[in-house]
Amino acid sequence: MWEFENKKRYFPDAEGGNVKFALVTLSADSQTAQATDFFFQGDVLSELDEADRHFALSAEDIALINPNTGTCPIFRTKRDASVTLALYRRAGVLWREEDPNGNPWGLRFLRMFDMALDSGLFRTRGELASAAWTLQGNRFVKDNEVMLPLYEAKMANLYNHRSGTYASVAPGDRPHRLPSPTDEQLANPCYVPLPFYWVAQSDVSARLDDVWNRHWLLGWRDVTDARTVARTLIAAVVPRVAVGHKMPIAFASAESEVTAALYANLASLPLDYSARQKIGGLSMTYFVLKQLPVLAPVAFAQACSRNLHERVRDWLLPASSNSHTRRGT
């Protein structure tokens, strides 16, 4: 199977240069091939002569990388295919749907607040101030009621839940790229970013109380682009606040210490390298995330005779704490 993009206008009537087409060779059952020769993202025919642009995958290889969907992975080079296969052979996938033991982290997902469908629950700073609510940190309070900040995906980043703020944005303006806090602000552990909207604490509790009782949330940015952004998968830990649907939330059944290891997996460079090979659009969907190579919890105990909780607590959490201290998070 050889895939090309129509940038050279092989098909002049096709709309746009990003239209793709493929050449597929099929054989009779008596001539079944053990592996298929693949070539993706070609621009010109001469690239077919580049040996490193070709790679072979068997049906077993495809099932190893995408066991839930059975879809063919897209690689640009033979080396990309080789490295990715090695990652999956060692780690497996985050969540193998057809396997009763295929969800070792005990994960559940949630899109907490839809930015369009739930907009009736949202209040702006001006609306709350005019109704005599008082801003304390980044929460509004009035009598015994609390309005929690609504975090949007662009407000959080890797190891930093304070990477974007609306504090200096003109009223009513919703920029695509938010201003970043200064180093001085991040050095202040009491500094908190301001959102565009707030949601009643009771509405947040209604979404979370039956599934999650901790004071933090683990999520990731849904919007991505493997061709233009520095990191393809941006996972973040944020406080227990309202969260928009462009930052889906993952709940793990493991204890907090072990979930820190899951976050370390999601923030690692090898996993991001793999995610970059698998993103064909602009969204880090559930089915893509589930099929990324993530170590199971037991992997963190295999190199040590002590139990998993002790090892993670002694190794991972001090490093995380020091990083947060330096960043003021």
Write the layout of secondary structure elements.
Layout lengths: L1 E4 L14 E4 L12 E7 L12 E3 L1 H7 L12 H14 L16 E3 L12 E2 H6 L3 E3 L2 E4 L2 E7 L31 H4 L10 E4 H8 L7 E5 L14 E5 L2 E2 L5 E3 L4 H11 L2 H10 L7 H5 L17 H20 L2
Parallel strand pairs: 1-3, 9-13
Antiparallel strand pairs: 1-2, 3-4, 5-14, 6-10, 7-8, 8-9, 9-10, 11-12, 11-14
Helix pairs in contact: 6-9
Which descriptors apply to this entry?
single chain, 329 residues, alpha+beta, six-stranded mixed β-sheet, four-stranded mixed β-sheet, 9 helices, 14 strands, 26% helix
What does this protein structure show overall?
This protein has 329 residues and is α+β, with helices and mostly antiparallel strands. The chain folds into two domains: 2-91, no CATH class; 108-327, no CATH class. Helix content is 26%, strand content 17%. It is built from nine helices and 14 strands. The protein has helices at residues 59-65, 78-91, 125-130, 183-186, 201-208, 256-266, 269-278, 286-290, 308-327, and strands at 2-5, 20-23, 36-42, 55-57, 108-110, 123-124, 134-136, 139-142, 145-151, 197-200, 216-220, 235-239, 242-243, 249-251. Strands 6, 7, 8, 9, 10 and 13 form a six-stranded mixed β-sheet that branches. Strands 2-1-3-4 form a four-stranded mixed β-sheet. Strands 5-14-11-12 form a four-stranded antiparallel β-sheet, with no helix packed on it. The longest helix is centred in the C-terminal third of the chain and has 20 residues, at 308-327. The chain is globular and about 75 Å long.
